[in-house]
Amino acid sequence: MTILPEERKNVILNLLKRDGKVKVADLAKHFRISEESIRRDLTMLEEKGSLKKVYGGAIATIFQSGEPPFEQRTTVNQAEKIKIGKKAAELISDGDVIAIDVGTTMLEFAHFIQNRKNLTILTNSIPVATVLTESLNQNQFTGEILMLGGNIDPKQQSVSGHLAEQMLNQFNIDKAFISAGGVSILNGVSNYHLNESFVSRIMVEVSKQIILLADNSKLGVDTFSKICPLEKVDMIVCDQTYPDTWKDDLKVYETEWIKA
Fold this sequence. Notes:
Elements: H1 5-19, E1 21-23, H2 24-31, H3 35-47, E2 51-54, E3 57-60, H4 62-65, H5 70-73, H6 78-89, E4 97-100, H7 104-111, E5 119-123, H8 126-137, E6 143-147, E7 151-153, E8 158-160, H9 162-168, E9 173-178, E10 182-184, E11 188-191, H10 194-206, E12 207-213, E13 225-228, E14 235-238, H11 247-253, E15 256-259
Parallel strand pairs: 4-5, 4-9, 5-6, 9-12, 12-14, 14-15
Antiparallel strand pairs: 1-3, 2-3, 7-8, 10-11, 11-13
Helix pairs in contact: 2-3, 6-7, 7-8
């Protein structure tokens, strides 16, 4: 495909509008040009404020100022989220008390919680609770589900607020599976939604082990509200390997990177 540079940039912006993100490798293959040429395009578009460059590609600027509703996000990077969810489910052991954060990656994760006994699962995600309830009814695992109470956000299908935070503080949790709007070496794990991030912070505080589930579009991204520094995260489950520049920091933090 041979088109003028400005036409190419318009195509990139249309893809961002449709999918929320683009990858350098995919664009280079699509346009039959070098990855370096695509990176230059992305840099120019970022300078205009049209997108935000991230590791391996770019995300739409709408993702920086506010996150789309839950339903809209379920199809974004779905294949990557499925891989992450399946891998993360392997980290659950019989008898675990676990907390599951909100988000579409957590929904995929919930589908893979199977063949485990005596689990206690706390969550503030309405879709996650629904999936787990169905799995429990079908005897795919045994245990109990505790839905955190509080204020419901219908767009994000989450529960947050003082009641949810207070309830979490009553428990000693073995493993917290947390989500993120972004994760970076400098600013750690962050979220778009202030109230959701407060709940995530409590999950981190009351849990023995912190496991972050994040697809590649979250890498190098900083969003509105900080959840925790990266050194507090024990494991990161991602669909690709870590950026080369993160290697030394991850070693210092003793954060294990698990590629799904």
